[in-house]
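Supplementary notes for students who missed Thursday's class. We covered one full example, reproduced here. Read the sequence, then the structure, then the short commentary at the end.
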Amino acid sequence: MRMIRGNVERIAETRERTARLLAEGFTEMPEASGGDQGVSEAAGQAHQDSENEPLAPDEQIEAMGVQKLRTLAKKRGLGSCSGLSREQLVAVLRENG
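Structure (token representation):
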């Protein structure tokens, strides 16, 4: 089963993996019958859903890119983090999570 959250896709081959991905905010992707159209629709829906998702747990912070880390820092009210490296952002978010 293909799962998506934002622009991240995962394949869940077991019930346990599916349950874990669902708990992390992933949703099941509809099967695409006409090329990539189903994928882009699912990605668009997941993007809309991601705007209202709760703040990321610490274990998900490690997987984020710099831009998402900066956005998360801003959501948490941590001020300007534009000069921080990825590693520094991760440390700051963990301390203030």
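Commentary. The longest helix spans residues 37-50. The longest strand covers residues 2-5. If anything here is unclear, bring it to office hours.
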